[in-house]
Design brief:
Helix content: 25-40%
Distance between the termini: 44 Å
CATH class of the largest domain: Alpha Beta
Number of strands: 11
Radius of gyration: 21 Å
Order of helices and strands: EEEEEEHEEEHHHEEH
CATH topology of the largest domain: Nucleoside Triphosphate Pyrophosphohydrolase
Largest sheet: 7 strands, mixed
Oligomer: single chain
Shape: elongated
CATH superfamily of the largest domain: Nucleoside Triphosphate Pyrophosphohydrolase
Number of helices: 5
Mean pLDDT: 88
Low-confidence stretches: none
């Protein structure tokens, strides 16, 4: 078979697959003091009725980022402009989709206490599910979710992305709770405060305080830094235990 591209004839080897491209989104938020992921219920085959990550096919002439934002809105009703959005990696196992060769580009999205999603297009329902309660997922979405969770946990060590889970302004205690929920560990309040307030351009004080009960707490907004200097590291044992504990049945 000869394919013409820009006036140049190219011979297509019949041994190559005609692959389709999709995007899938792993969207994390902290709700009810738990790390939760957004799942849809598939409204058509394959895997009719099974939970899955939101996503869909990339349209002709559409960038991957634009496809991710569009699918986010179509399947969940969420505004991608409110989220931290980054590519996770590409998944291309030939057997990952029973309909044929489909390569997917997975995205990691993080946001603060996001609202209840609204299902659309080919999703029968959309809901937040605590990460530790996720069961069987369609396609290879359990693998994607597991790797996205580890990416999110690692990002908290080396970047300031934890603040993406907080509505501004926030307190150091609010930020610490994000780390505790995402890492699934308890952190010493004094040590945590010292580390994050000394990190270069991580937090910017607003000059205001929140008065709830007890001592008024200083309020902060996210600073301009992306890399966390110095990093806030988990211990190796904790990191390994977290990764192995996410079985995602």
């Amino acid at each position: 078979m000869i394919v013409v591209l820009g006036g140049v004839g190219l011979v297509r080897d019949a041994s190559y697959d005609d692959a389709l491209v999709t995007v899938d989104l792993v969207i994390f938020t902290v709700r009810d003091d738990r790390l939760q992921v957004l799942l849809i219920e598939r409204g058509k085959e394959p895997f009719l009725g099974l939970p899955a990550l939101p996503g869909g096919y990339v349209r002709a002439g559409e960038t991957l980022d634009a496809a991710a934002r569009r699918e986010l809105g179509e399947e969940t009703g969420l505004d991608g402009g409110r989220l931290h959005l980054e590519q996770l990696r590409t998944y291309g196992d030939p057997e990952r989709d029973p309909r044929g060769r489909v390569v997917t580009v997975a995205y990691l999205a993080l946001g603060p206490d996001l609202p209840v999603p609204v299902a659309g297009t080919d999703a029968r329902a959309a809901r937040w599910v605590p990460v530790q309660e996720v069961g069987r997922l369609a396609f290879d979405h359990d693998v994607i979710l597991r790797e996205a969770l580890e990416r999110a946990r690692s990002q908290l060590e080396y970047t300031t992305v934890a603040a993406a889970f907080c509505r501004e302004p926030f307190t150091v205690a609010d930020l610490r709770r994000v780390y505790e929920v995402v890492w699934d560990v308890a952190l010493d309040p004094s040590n945590f405060r010292r580390k994050v307030t000394r990190a270069e351009r991580f937090l910017e004080p607003t000059g205001e305080r929140r008065v709830d009960t007890g001592r008024p707490a200083a309020l902060y907004r996210r600073g301009p830094a992306w890399l966390l200097s110095p990093p806030l590291l988990r211990s190796g044992d904790v990191a390994r235990a977290q990764f192995s504990a996410v079985s995602l049945r």
